[in-house]
Design goal:
Blueprint: H1 13-16, H2 21-30, H3 35-42, H4 72-75, E1 79-80, E2 93-96, E3 99-103, E4 117-121, E5 124-127, H5 133-143, E6 169-173, E7 189-193, H6 220-229, H7 237-245, E8 272-273, E9 277-278, E10 308-314, H8 319-324, E11 329-330, E12 348-352, E13 372-375, E14 383-384, E15 388-390
Parallel strand pairs: 4-11, 10-14
Antiparallel strand pairs: 1-3, 2-5, 3-4, 5-15, 6-7, 8-9, 10-12, 12-13
Length: about 400
């Protein structure tokens, strides 16, 4: 039986050393600072994808005709193990036998996904779906845990700011009324006091009717704490990508090489003009139930789209080049530290999957070999997670 754990933990060294950028932006608004300061803080991007992708032509037509097929020599290096599961499957988990695969993406126009390199992972168990609101509610009921978004910020992290202005909350997506420049995320993201996993769009909203949707507004610390309570852990980036590929070799998406196989949307992503109009052709404007779309080849749901999902690894854009220079990487655990040249002072962890906000005009990181990143002490209305368990 799961034992109740403490409701709060010490912030990690990484997260305590840096306060939440979006909260700084919110405080700046509350205090009506100068436009220059507000702009500076607004550019402090907390979320996983902080630049405009320029590769929509690769997949906007929904066809696989432009996909370069792997050559026979490199394809021969790919394998999926025949390792049998080490016992009965834990509830809600799928056995991934491990194997060797080409990790990354050379034709995505995303420098941090290059070069494609060989990686071998051992077998492991992985959650069939992202953690749902119902599952997270069970955890909170048993432990009394408060997520990072629910905690009032520590005044020590905000010297010179009136403590009464420091309120708990999180970043929420809100579509602007007209087209805006895609280099200013403050046009569609805003810090909402009171927003949390229980109130996804802020006060007055609930998860009622969304029990089987993925839990959101999850910071990395929240995901780690839940995983430990379950006797699990977060996946490494390599484990996530191997599992998401579903046994295929250098496929563009978790479901294959067609964006819309058979003319049907295969994941919860953005359709329409981002960020003003989501046509919701896939049936959803925001999150969707975790089994709303078909599973991949390993029987996993939502390994592309719906919500970003935390990994254990620190983020560095040059990490793949480091791995590739040393031959086949076996069970890589990520770099020793974090570095994002766009925000060099903010510790970040890898995120995978993309989310319901990713489109062919912006983000596009539902591509299975792509990478995201997020500040460790921040979540948002499109950030969740799933867990794994070693064999």
């Amino acid at each position: 039986m799961k034992q109740p754990r403490q409701s709060t933990k010490k912030r990690s060294i990484a997260s305590s050393s840096r306060s939440r950028p979006w909260l700084l932006y919110a405080v700046a608004l509350v205090l009506v600072l100068t436009a220059a300061i507000a702009l500076l803080l607004g550019k402090n991007k907390w979320f996983a994808q902080s630049q405009v992708d320029k590769h929509s032509a690769h997949h906007s037509d929904g066809h696989a005709s432009g996909v370069k097929q792997p050559d026979a020599e490199s394809a021969a290096l790919v394998s999926t193990n025949s390792t049998t599961p080490p016992g009965a499957a834990p509830d809600g988990m799928v056995w991934i036998p491990g194997g060797t695969f080409w990790m990354g993406c050379d034709d995505c126009d995303m420098p941090d996904t290059q070069p494609v390199h060989l990686v071998t992972v051992d077998g492991f168990w992985v959650d069939r779906t992202p953690v749902t609101n119902a599952q997270f509610a069970e955890f909170v009921k048993a432990t009394g845990y408060l997520t990072v978004a629910e905690r009032k910020p520590d005044p020590k992290d905000y010297p010179g700011v009136d403590p009464s202005k420091l309120v708990a909350g999180s970043a929420v997506f809100s579509p602007p009324a007209k087209d805006v420049a895609l280099d200013d995320i403050t046009q569609w993201w805003g810090y909402v006091p009171g927003a949390s996993w229980k109130h996804p769009e802020g006060p007055g909203t609930t998860i009622e009717g969304r029990e089987e949707h993925p839990v959101v507004h999850i910071a990395w610390e929240d995901a780690v704490t839940y995983a430990k309570w379950e006797g699990k852990r977060l996946p490494t980036e390599a484990e996530f990508e191997f599992a998401a590929r579903g046994g295929m070799d250098r496929n563009r998406y978790a479901w294959g090489n067609d964006l819309k196989p058979g003319g049907a949307w295969a994941a919860n992503i953005w359709q329409g003009r981002f960020p003003t109009k989501n046509l919701a052709e896939d049936g959803y404007e925001r999150t969707s139930p975790v089994t709303a779309f078909p599973a991949n080849g390993f029987g996993l749901y939502d390994v592309g789209g719906n919500v970003w999902q935390w990994c254990a690894d620190w983020y560095r854009p040059d990490y793949f080049a480091t791995l590739a220079a040393n031959g086949v990487a076996r069970n890589p655990q990520g770099p020793r530290d974090s570095y994002d040249p766009q925000e060099p002072g903010i510790p970040k962890r890898v995120q995978k999957s993309g989310s319901f906000l990713c489109s062919d005009r912006y983000c596009s990181r539902y591509l299975v070999g792509s990478r995201g990143r997020g500040a460790v002490d921040s979540g948002g209305s499109n950030t969740g997670f799933r867990c794994v368990k070693s064999s």
